[in-house]
């Protein structure tokens, strides 16, 4: 029985997993961080890598070391069946056809394609045609999940590396000034490491780490590795290598962002920073180059998400729809929602994703730490219950300002900000989840304490007591 992938298969799997992870958001966050951090870019990077790389890596490791078949199996083992179905459906639909996939379609259009539309073409028409092209490509590749290693690991990802490499190598080898001379601004001037941690957290890649586990497992098995422990080992190895590759790219992108201070004013977002870099170094071709970078970055991710969602729903709801029908359904939903436009998608999606993220992180902690030191059921339920309830706080905090005003939620948010530690930074769930751990531990100790007297009794004495 085959126990390990070959060196070439491991490289292809690593490339595929990196391609699944690395979308447009993974470019926009670090390049913006680099520009704002300036001379403090290295401390900011240190913080960013802790959460931006550490969390998705732990997500893949959680699936691997627990021997889980995917997210639902992991949830079932740690919490229970009902939670497993509810959270798995919510996560896959949120980072799949309802929110993240449509956003991945509209980001390359807004950042790059829109700038090179033919004169006279309306923005809405351009978005429709571009999203239609995206739909066709996504569906063509997703309908054959057995070929995803080839398409993403050996074709799309290498193209992405070449296009991105042209921009980064040019920018880093032809600096417009010394990074050391650019002062950090905003929160980066006070504590660059802490702000970098927040930036990495906001990528929300831990969700992707849990979602893509099923794709990696299926690819490993398709290459002849079927023993559960060997599948886990190869999955974890690919996760570690792909996250190291992500860390390397993050460093280069952040340094390029910091160097942009030599020729560009501070921008409001990472997309604008990338546009400034491309325009400065490639003049008339900058918009086209940037469009190619973001297009390939997002196409890889959407294909991975559609494949993951379809594979998961086939397993969760056997006999309802075939894999191909799920893929067609999810791709079509993505196409329809994408045409609502980027602003509308972000307005709706961000609160939902921010609510799911604390639950995902808690699940990962329970899986990884619990694999080393098994947690009693009371601790697992206590932590997850607290995380689910307190995640609503992050949902409310991320709602659009006009929605908050219309629902009269300002008073509640002000109260939470004044009384709940870390709420203003997006970590309002942290203290309640720790409290859930403590309460669960107390309950477990009380349960164990009640059973102690029986430990010294004979079976006849215990039977007599019960009688």
TrEMBL record:
It is found in: Cell membrane. One of its GO terms (cellular component) is plasma membrane. GO terms for molecular function: L-isoleucine transmembrane transporter activity; L-leucine transmembrane transporter activity; L-valine transmembrane transporter activity. Signal peptide: none annotated. InterPro entries: Brnchd-chn_aa_trnsp_Livcs. Belongs to the branched chain amino acid transporter family. This is Branched-chain amino acid transport system carrier protein.
């Amino acid at each position: 029985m085959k126990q390990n992938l070959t060196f070439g298969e491991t490289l292809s799997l690593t490339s595929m997993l990196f391609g699944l992870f690395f979308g447009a958001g993974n470019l926009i966050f670090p390049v913006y961080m680099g520009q704002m951090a300036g001379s403090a870019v290295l401390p900011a990077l240190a913080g960013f890598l802790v959460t931006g790389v550490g969390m998705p890596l732990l997500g893949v490791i959680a699936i691997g070391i627990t021997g889980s078949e995917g997210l639902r199996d992991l949830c079932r083992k740690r919490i229970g069946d009902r939670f497993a179905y509810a959270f798995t459906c919510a996560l896959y639909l949120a980072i799949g056809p309802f929110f993240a996939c449509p956003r991945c379609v509209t980001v390359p259009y807004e950042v790059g394609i829109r700038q090179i539309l033919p004169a006279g073409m309306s923005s809405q028409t351009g978005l429709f045609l571009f999203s239609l092209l995206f739909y066709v490509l996504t569906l063509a590749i997703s309908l054959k999940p057995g070929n995803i290693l080839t398409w993403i690991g050996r074709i799309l990802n290498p193209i992405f590396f070449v296009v991105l490499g042209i921009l980064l190598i040019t920018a880093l080898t032809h600096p417009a000034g010394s990074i050391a001379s650019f002062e950090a601004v905003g929160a980066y001037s006070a504590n660059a490491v802490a702000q970098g941690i927040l930036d990495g957290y906001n990528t929300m890649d831990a969700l992707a780490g849990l979602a893509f586990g099923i794709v990696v497992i299926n690819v490993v098995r398709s290459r002849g590795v079927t023993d559960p422990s060997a599948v886990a080992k190869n999955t974890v190895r690919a996760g570690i290598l792909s996250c190291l590759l992500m860390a390397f790219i993050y460093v280069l992108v952040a340094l390029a962002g910091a160097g942009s201070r030599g020729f560009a004013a501070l921008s409001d977002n990472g997309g604008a920073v990338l546009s400034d870099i491309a325009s400065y170094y490639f003049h008339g071709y900058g918009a086209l180059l940037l469009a190619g970078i973001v297009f390939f970055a997002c196409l890889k991710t959407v294909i991975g998400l559609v494949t993951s969602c379809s594979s998961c729903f086939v397993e969760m709801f056997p006999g309802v729809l075939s894999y191909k029908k799920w893929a067609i359904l999810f791709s079509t939903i993505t196409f329809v929602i994408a045409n609502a436009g980027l602003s509308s998608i972000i307005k709706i999606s961000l609160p939902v994703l921010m609510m799911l993220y604390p639950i995902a992180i808690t699940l990962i902690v329970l899986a990884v730490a619990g694999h080393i030191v098994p947690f009693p059921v009371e601790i697992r339920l206590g932590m997850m219950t607290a995380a689910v309830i307190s995640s609503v706080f992050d949902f409310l905090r991320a709602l659009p300002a006009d929605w908050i005003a219309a629902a009269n939620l300002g008073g509640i948010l002000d109260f939470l900000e004044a009384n709940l530690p870390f709420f203003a930074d997006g970590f309002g769930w942290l203290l309640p989840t720790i409290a859930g751990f403590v309460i669960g531990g107390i309950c477990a100790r009380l349960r164990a304490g009640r059973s102690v007297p029986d430990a010294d009794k004979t079976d006849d004495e215990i039977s007599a007591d019960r009688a």
